Amino acid sequence: MRLRMCKVYKLTLTQFTQFLILFVLAFTACKTPAPFTQEEAYQENVQYLKTQAYDNWNKRINRKNATVATFFLEKVHSLEPDNLEIALLLSRAYHFEGYYIETDPAQKDSLFMMGKRLAIQIVEQSEVFQNAKAAVQGDSMVKVTEAVSVVEKKYLSALYWWAANRGRYFSTKPVRMRLEYRELGEALMHRVLALDPEFFYGGPYRFFGALYARLPGVELSRSEEYFQKAIAAYPDYLGTYVLRAQFLHTKAGDREKFKADLEYVINADPALLPDAMPENLFEQKFAEELLANEDMLFE
After folding, report:
1. pLDDT in tens, 55-114
2. Contacts of 189 (CB under 8 A, 6+ apart)
3. In 53-84, which positions are buried (b, 16+ CB within 10 angstroms) versus exposed (e)?
4. Which of 95, 179, 183, 235 is most buried per CB count within 10 Å?
């Protein structure tokens, strides 16, 4: 499941990370006791890289730690391409960095595409997926769209990050393009919805809430229904309120609800959901930015 990816880092970060990795490998090699075999020394170095990846990921509220976590996850994935846990976390890390950290549009797109491709490679390991794809008549898009609807729960996380990274990528594209590629995105998230509707803090509900708020010709009540389900499942995940304000309330022209959702997010305790506290803290910053642009959004 090896995936060759090329990521452009800022020069200072490149120098820092390359120096750090070389230092780590040299240091651990030097401190390896003589009786260690080459394989044992190699495994010790890999374990050190994993520790660095997880430690930095747990500190991802800091922009530098988030980027360094992605770097180390890439290194571990290149050494252990069949490590499902690492591959899934890397797909999520690409999404996190693309959505919360990176500011350059081209780099954001690149991160989302890498996250999507990695998730696809994981799902492609499913024999159920491959058999279903082979049995379907039609072009490649039709085959994939039909096949994802039967993928087993083992690949739930990969399906979600496939859809999430893909959705973020298309969210900045013209309506025509979003409509053209809508069917596969819905198929992916409908499968996640069927397997676990509350996955990633009500993620499938949140996805459809945002999707139906943005699509032309769709009743806004459908969007509101999905957002409400996401909030009912995880009321302390602040990203749901931000998306509802950004897409549903602006489209409905409801300034009062727009302000209510964003002020709720800004005044909320991000630590009420400890595992998602970094995401919640970033969502609070998004809420502040949206409020600052209220007049422009409601022109």
Report:
1. 999 999 999 999 999 999 999 999 999 999 999 999 999 999 999 999 999 999 999 999
2. 159, 160, 163, 204, 207, 208
3. bbebbeebeeeebbbbbbbbbbbbbeebeebe
4. 95
Distances (CA, A) of 175 to 170, 211, 214, 295: 9, 11, 9, 23
Give the position of tokens 């943005």: 214
Residue with tokens 């996640």: 192
Regarding whether 127 and 75 lie in a shared domain, the answer is no
Q: How far apart are CA 2 and CA 144, in angstroms?
A: 21
pLDDT the model gives residue 14:
53
Q: Is 200 left (phi over 0), alpha (psi -120 to 50) or beta?
A: left
Amino acid at 195: L
Same-domain check for residues 89 and 200: yes
User: Which pair of structure tokens corresponds to residue 271?
Assistant: 């630590």
| In a shared domain, residues 170 and 293 | no
Half-sphere exposure of 211 (CA within 13 A, CB side): 24
pTM for the model: 0.87
Domain contains 3: no
Tens-digit pLDDT profile for residues 174-226: 888 888 888 999 999 999 999 999 999 999 999 999 999 998 889 999 999 99
